Amino acid sequence: MTTNCFCGASTPFDLCCEPFISGKNNAPTAEKLMRSRYSAFATHHAAYLVATTHKSERTSTLKEEVLQWAIANQWQKLEIVQATATTVTFKAYYMDFNRQPQIHHELSTFVQEDGLWYYVDGSFF
Where exactly are the transmembrane stretches of this chain (predicted)? Predict the structure, then answer.
Protein backbone atom coordinates (compact mmCIF):
# COMPACT_ATOMS: atom_id res chain seq x y z
CA MET A 1 0.00 0.00 0.00
CA THR A 2 1.37 3.38 -1.02
CA THR A 3 0.58 6.42 1.10
CA ASN A 4 0.59 10.08 0.14
CA CYS A 5 3.67 12.17 0.75
CA PHE A 6 4.18 13.83 4.14
CA CYS A 7 3.83 17.23 2.42
CA GLY A 8 0.18 16.57 1.63
CA ALA A 9 0.56 15.85 -2.06
CA SER A 10 -1.43 12.91 -3.41
CA THR A 11 1.85 11.47 -4.72
CA PRO A 12 3.82 8.83 -2.80
CA PHE A 13 6.83 10.12 -0.79
CA ASP A 14 9.33 8.22 -2.98
CA LEU A 15 8.00 10.04 -6.07
CA CYS A 16 7.35 13.41 -4.42
CA CYS A 17 9.76 14.79 -1.80
CA GLU A 18 12.21 11.92 -1.35
CA PRO A 19 14.10 12.62 -4.61
CA PHE A 20 14.81 16.16 -3.33
CA ILE A 21 15.78 15.03 0.17
CA SER A 22 18.08 12.30 -1.18
CA GLY A 23 19.76 14.72 -3.60
CA LYS A 24 18.60 12.91 -6.75
CA ASN A 25 16.75 16.05 -7.89
CA ASN A 26 16.65 19.73 -6.93
CA ALA A 27 13.41 21.38 -5.92
CA PRO A 28 12.25 23.39 -8.96
CA THR A 29 10.26 26.01 -7.02
CA ALA A 30 10.13 27.66 -3.61
CA GLU A 31 6.89 25.80 -2.85
CA LYS A 32 8.40 22.42 -3.74
CA LEU A 33 11.36 23.23 -1.50
CA MET A 34 8.99 24.18 1.32
CA ARG A 35 7.07 20.93 0.91
CA SER A 36 10.27 18.87 0.86
CA ARG A 37 11.56 20.67 3.95
CA TYR A 38 8.35 19.77 5.79
CA SER A 39 8.83 16.14 4.70
CA ALA A 40 12.43 16.34 5.92
CA PHE A 41 11.19 17.44 9.35
CA ALA A 42 8.70 14.58 9.36
CA THR A 43 11.41 12.06 8.43
CA HIS A 44 14.21 13.63 10.53
CA HIS A 45 16.53 14.53 7.63
CA ALA A 46 18.38 17.38 9.36
CA ALA A 47 21.24 17.40 6.84
CA TYR A 48 18.78 18.30 4.07
CA LEU A 49 17.27 21.06 6.20
CA VAL A 50 20.71 22.56 6.77
CA ALA A 51 21.72 22.18 3.11
CA THR A 52 18.55 23.96 1.95
CA THR A 53 18.93 26.81 4.45
CA HIS A 54 20.64 29.83 2.91
CA LYS A 55 24.29 30.08 3.94
CA SER A 56 23.63 33.48 5.55
CA GLU A 57 21.31 31.78 8.05
CA ARG A 58 23.36 28.68 8.90
CA THR A 59 24.90 28.40 12.34
CA SER A 60 27.28 25.85 13.78
CA THR A 61 24.44 24.34 15.85
CA LEU A 62 21.72 24.46 13.18
CA LYS A 63 21.78 20.75 12.36
CA GLU A 64 21.51 19.75 16.02
CA GLU A 65 18.73 22.27 16.65
CA VAL A 66 16.55 21.23 13.70
CA LEU A 67 17.07 17.54 14.40
CA GLN A 68 16.01 17.97 18.03
CA TRP A 69 12.90 19.91 16.99
CA ALA A 70 12.05 17.41 14.25
CA ILE A 71 12.33 14.44 16.61
CA ALA A 72 10.55 16.13 19.54
CA ASN A 73 7.38 16.67 17.50
CA GLN A 74 4.99 14.35 15.71
CA TRP A 75 4.24 15.94 12.34
CA GLN A 76 0.57 15.70 11.33
CA LYS A 77 0.05 17.64 8.10
CA LEU A 78 1.11 20.60 5.99
CA GLU A 79 -1.29 23.20 4.64
CA ILE A 80 -0.05 25.66 2.02
CA VAL A 81 -2.03 28.87 2.54
CA GLN A 82 -0.45 30.91 -0.26
CA ALA A 83 2.62 30.68 -2.47
CA THR A 84 4.39 33.16 -4.73
CA ALA A 85 7.62 32.74 -6.67
CA THR A 86 9.74 33.50 -3.56
CA THR A 87 7.42 33.12 -0.55
CA VAL A 88 5.26 30.41 0.96
CA THR A 89 2.73 30.92 3.72
CA PHE A 90 1.96 27.65 5.42
CA LYS A 91 0.58 25.96 8.50
CA ALA A 92 2.41 22.92 9.85
CA TYR A 93 0.28 20.89 12.23
CA TYR A 94 2.06 18.79 14.82
CA MET A 95 1.89 17.29 18.29
CA ASP A 96 4.57 18.73 20.55
CA PHE A 97 6.72 16.79 23.01
CA ASN A 98 3.84 16.93 25.53
CA ARG A 99 1.52 15.52 22.83
CA GLN A 100 -0.38 18.80 22.67
CA PRO A 101 -1.64 19.87 19.22
CA GLN A 102 0.21 22.86 17.77
CA ILE A 103 0.14 24.89 14.56
CA HIS A 104 3.30 26.51 13.22
CA HIS A 105 2.01 29.32 10.95
CA GLU A 106 4.76 31.00 8.94
CA LEU A 107 5.45 33.20 5.93
CA SER A 108 8.73 31.80 4.59
CA THR A 109 11.06 33.63 2.24
CA PHE A 110 13.20 31.79 -0.32
CA VAL A 111 15.94 32.76 -2.73
CA GLN A 112 17.28 30.99 -5.79
CA GLU A 113 21.04 30.99 -6.32
CA ASP A 114 22.88 29.12 -9.06
CA GLY A 115 19.66 27.28 -9.89
CA LEU A 116 19.07 26.04 -6.33
CA TRP A 117 16.36 27.21 -3.94
CA TYR A 118 17.16 28.05 -0.31
CA TYR A 119 15.07 28.91 2.74
CA VAL A 120 16.13 32.35 4.02
CA ASP A 121 13.85 33.17 6.92
CA GLY A 122 10.31 33.28 8.17
CA SER A 123 7.79 35.54 9.88
CA PHE A 124 5.51 33.81 12.34
CA PHE A 125 1.81 34.44 12.90
Answer: none
